[in-house]
Description:
Chain A: This is Ferredoxin reductase. Chain A: Its cofactor is FAD. Chain A: InterPro entries: FAD-oxidoreductase/Apoptosis (IPR050446), FAD/NAD-bd_sf (IPR036188), FAD/NAD-binding_dom (IPR023753), FAD/NAD-linked_Rdtase_dimer_sf (IPR016156), Reductase_C (IPR028202). Chain A: Residues 19-322 form the FAD/NAD(P)-binding domain. The complex is a heterodimer. By secondary structure, chain A is α/β, with parallel strands linked by helices. Chain A folds into three domains: 3-58 and 77-121 and 259-338, FAD/NAD(P)-binding domain (3-Layer(bba) Sandwich); 125-255, 3-Layer(bba) Sandwich (FAD/NAD(P)-binding domain), CATH 3.50.50; 347-436, Enolase-like, domain 1. Chain A contains nine helices and 31 strands. Chain A has helices spanning 3-17, 27-38, 64-67, 130-133, 144-155, 168-179, 195-212, 318-332, 403-411; strands at residues 19-23, 44-49, 86-89, 93-97, 102-105, 110-112, 115-118, 122-124, 138-139, 161-164, 184-188, 216-219, 223-228, 234-239, 244-246, 249-252, 256-258, 270-271, 274-276, 282-284, 290-296, 301-305, 311-313, 347-352, 355-361, 368-375, 380-387, 390-397, 432-433, 447-451, 459-463. In chain A, strand 1, helix 2 (27-38) and strand 2 form a beta-alpha-beta unit. In chain A, helix 2 (27-38) runs parallel beside helix 8 (318-332). Chain A is globular and about 75 Å long. Chain B has a single domain (2-61), classed as 2-Layer Sandwich (Alpha-Beta Plaits), CATH 3.30.70. Chain B has helices spanning 15-19, 43-52, and strands at residues 3-5, 24-26, 32-34, 58-60, 70-71. Strand 3 of chain A pairs parallel with strand 5 (70-71) of chain B. The complex binds flavin-adenine dinucleotide (FAD) and iron/sulfur cluster. Residues 23-29, 48-51, 58-59, 61-62, 92-93, 119-122, 141-142, 169, 259, 262, 298-299, 316-318, 321, 348-350 of chain A line the site of flavin-adenine dinucleotide (FAD). Flavin-adenine dinucleotide is lined by residues 23-29, 48-51, 58-59, 61-62, 92-93, 119-122, 141-142, 169, 259, 262, 298-299, 316-318, 321, 348-350 of chain A.
Amino acid sequence: xxxxxxxxxxxxxxxxxxxxxxxxxxxxxxxxxxxxxxxxxxxxxxxxxxxxxxxxxxxxxxxxxxxxxxxxxxxxxxxxxxxxxxxxxxxxxxxxxxxxxxxxxxxxxxxxxxxxxxxxxxxxxxxxxxxxxxxxxxxxxxxxxxxxxxxxxxxxxxxxxxxxxxxxxxxxxxxxxxxxxxxxxxxxxxxxxxxxxxxxxxxxxxxxxxxxxxxxxxxxxxxxxxxxxxxxxxxxxxxxxxxxxxxxxxxxxxxxxxxxxxxxxxxxxxxxxxxxxxxxxxxxxxxxxxxxxxxxxxxxxxxxxxxxxxxxxxxxxxxxxxxxxxxxxxxxxxxxxxxxxxxxxxxxxxxxxxxxxxxxxxxxxxxxxxxxxxxxxxxxxxxxxxxxxxxxxxxxxxxxxxxxxxxxxxxxxxxxxxxxxxxxxxxxxxxxxxxxxxxxxxxxxxxxxxxxxxxxxxxxxxxxxxx
Amino acid sequence: xxxxxxxxxxxxxxxxxxxxxxxxxxxxxxxxxxxxxxxxxxxxxxxxxxxxxxxxxxxxxxxxxxxxxxxx
Lengths: 467, 72
Ligand SMILES: Cc1cc2nc3c(=O)[nH]c(=O)nc-3n(C[C@H](O)[C@H](O)[C@H](O)COP(=O)(O)OP(=O)(O)OC[C@H]3O[C@@H](n4cnc5c(N)ncnc54)[C@H](O)[C@@H]3O)c2cc1C
Ligand code: SF4
């Protein structure tokens, strides 16, 4: 047999009787499983998930579920096809041994794989003081159970809710509170809501929108501590300016932490920032060398993006999980040159205060912004972000149908400011600074160091940095 | 039945709201919310809504229910 025929035979054999393990049974995990079967993989498929539920959708949790319209258990994801898998739900993966190609589970079992997909996503960052975080009435929102508990708490008409952090999810929670007629205070360390994602110019508009809906918005401030009553229920939040706010529900919406601890010691490029991979979903080892058998998709993945100077981007967005999973699954059962690249133009939506906010591209990559359509006063507008004379992202408020126009421009590296789409233009179309927070502030990102000299010994190591 | 709407794709045309208002709702001018697990009696309505959506954003399960999911 020629080498080429041997390789073709190996691929056929792997598709027929290989062993694939997926860790993480949510959006990315399910879509990957479906794609594997779609691509003709008939070998054994094991899906490991630490949550006891079959895969469900998260975006409705902070919207229709919190509002009480849809029960939390109604969010199971639709099945596009049979996946015929061994589902191991309610048990976490706790380790990965690449030498013997096994995933270790919390119940002591070890599951062997030929190819592995990491789809463990992120979790909510908890309120940092554990005693205060354990007070009744203190919530985070990531899972079905979280949403169910918070919905119950909101249905009991609390006297006031304090939301800590005005990112997308915190802002959506505040919006639901106002829709339910619950007084709400939002405390945000940055200068305005959504600044990290959309910058200060849009942040100011979001701030006004919150205030118009009766949110008590306090920016440039942190919560320094939470105070409970004798029954262990939260009653008050103390702010960094010395004031305090009485509340019986507190929602900590402090961003996310990537679920990578189970990969410690595996020698993969997995850490604080996620799991590094190439644009085909193939995971890098700690030295930056691509592995052959391990893939990653969804919120936990971090890959270089061609449109953004090949910077490694982690995208915690719904469509990134779907498309990333499809690409990774395809590549798991194919060989070069039949690999697909994950070249998604990132996109995001959020519904808050009756406004549909959408973005395409990577807004924080831009340093300038220009309003191109509609009216800021009416909160129906489109704005474009630019970087060195090129359009890199766009955001719309209740102007969703225009997003495709901007998406196409971004894909083609169109000029900034972009050519006006023809009508509905605001009077003032002057670019201005987009006002993203300064990226130079120090973070707790670990250092990477090199050790060894001989080619076979030379290796990289993570050294966590502590402040 | 199970559905999910790809809200990246959805452009708020509200076709689905006209055809199945118990399942799809606009929250404001164009922010769509929906019941992901509508009653089976609504199947026909939902299928019509999905067919009428100009951008095909409504995804309906092709197989129903879980298949032999074991919880450890
Ligand atoms: C409240 C909320 C609202 C959102 N709203 C929007 C929105 O409006 N628009 C948008 O684009 N995106 C939104 N998102 C983001 C979107 O839901 C995520 O991008 C998507 O869920 C990512 O899917 P994933 O499969 O990568 O990760 P996840 O959904 O996080 O799934 C990972 C799964 O792996 C499990 N797991 C973790 N560690 C282990 C382990 N060691 N062993 C076994 N299992 C493990 C986790 O428990 C989880 O079930 C929202 C997210 C939340 C939480
Ligand atoms: S018909 Fe389609 S595009 Fe219109 S609101 Fe419904 S899902 Fe969105």
